[in-house]
Amino acid sequence: MAVAGLMLMAMSSCRKDLCYNHFRTAAVSLSWEQEWERDYGMAHAANWDEALHGLTYDDMRPELPELVTLVTYSDEASPRETFLPVEGDDVGVDGLSGTSFLLYNNDTEYIVLADMASLAEARATSTSRSRSTIEYLTQIHPGVRSTNPPDVLYASFVEEVPFIDLHESRHLPVTMQPLVYTYIIRYEFEYGIHHVAIARGALGGMAESVYLRSGATSAESSIILFDCDVKSYGCEAHVRSFGIPAFPDEYYGRAATSRADEPYTLNLELRLTNGKTVEFNYDIADQILAQPRGGVIRVSGIRIEDEENLFNSGFDVEVDDWGEHEDIDLPVGVF
């Protein structure tokens, strides 16, 4: 009887140095920082004008994503992906030296990831978008790529996963922070909004990409193309962006004045009810530098005189689209 008991104990137990089903688990729990802008002195949250904007400050907060990718990096193995729900989950770890976690939401349409094999170089950018009518912006911002606004993107980096012993699980709280911010852009008309059929805009000088590990933006800039809503006061767009280029640096000490010589340009293109197209361009460097990561951009005094819309061009026109000047989304990988 005693011998049988010893045999049963041997079969039901496992020596840590011999067993082949050892596990180490990081119990990753995710919290979310749902911010649409960062305050650098404008105090939008404290001074929000709900009547002006027609929504609350909190209405602008991005929603939670649907799914998260966790990439495990270590000194001894290639990167490995694990998929998590938005609340987090248990993640198996190997106990290898120099283990780090990089997390980001993966339910995006326009986000393109690059150089993911290198933790230091892993970054996100947005897909290319072409518009034939932005000659002025391409002169002000020569050689830069025009893009779609990026999707909502969160990320977090765990530089060193705590050592977890065999057969152990350790709680690992992770805060997911936004890497994409939103600008409310208001084109305020003095007169003539009733002449406008459709509208679109462009924002030149914004960062082309963002590094996932640090949240710093690349030095390269881009032109973001977007559509506008025509409203009673003028035109409006909510435009997502990575923020201004090269911000912040690795020490989070870059001053806004260090980008003061860079151009930031806002474009508005209108198609009037007679089919005619008109365009406006604005230097908005002061507004952008005061709001490097989301905020409210306003330009005013726009006028469309009655004489500009008295008659059509003599051709049958469709004023509910841009015709031969429609934007073109370029395939992923085409820059």
Shape: elongated
Radius of gyration, whole Å: 26 Å
| Percentage of β-strand residues | 35-45%
Q: How many strands?
A: 20
What features would you highlight for this structure?
335 residues; mainly beta; eight-stranded mixed β-sheet; seven-stranded mixed β-sheet; 4 helices; elongated; disordered N terminus
Helices and strands in order:
Layout: H1 2-12, E1 24-32, H2 50-53, E2 68-73, E3 80-84, E4 88-92, E5 100-105, E6 111-114, E7 123-126, E8 129-130, H3 135-140, E9 145-147, E10 154-158, E11 168-178, E12 181-191, E13 196-207, E14 209-211, E15 221-230, E16 234-241, E17 265-272, E18 277-283, H4 285-290, E19 295-303, E20 328-329
Parallel strand pairs: 1-11, 9-15, 12-19
Antiparallel strand pairs: 1-4, 2-3, 2-5, 5-10, 6-7, 7-14, 8-20, 10-11, 12-16, 13-15, 13-17, 15-16, 17-18
Written overview of the protein:
- There is one protein chain.
- Strands 9, 12, 13, 15, 16, 17, 18 and 19 form an 8-stranded mixed sheet that branches. This protein has a 7-stranded mixed sheet with strand order 3-2-5-10-11-1-4, with no helix packed on it.
- The chain contains 4 helices and 20 strands.
- The N and C termini lie far apart (76 Å).
- It has 335 residues and is mainly β.
- It has one domain (21-307, 317-329).
- The relative contact order is 0.16.
Give a short overview.
The chain contains 4 helices and 20 strands. The chain is mainly beta and 335 residues long. The strands form 4 sheets. Strands 9, 12, 13, 15, 16, 17, 18 and 19 form an 8-stranded mixed beta sheet that branches. Strands 3-2-5-10-11-1-4 form a 7-stranded mixed beta sheet, with no helix packed on it.
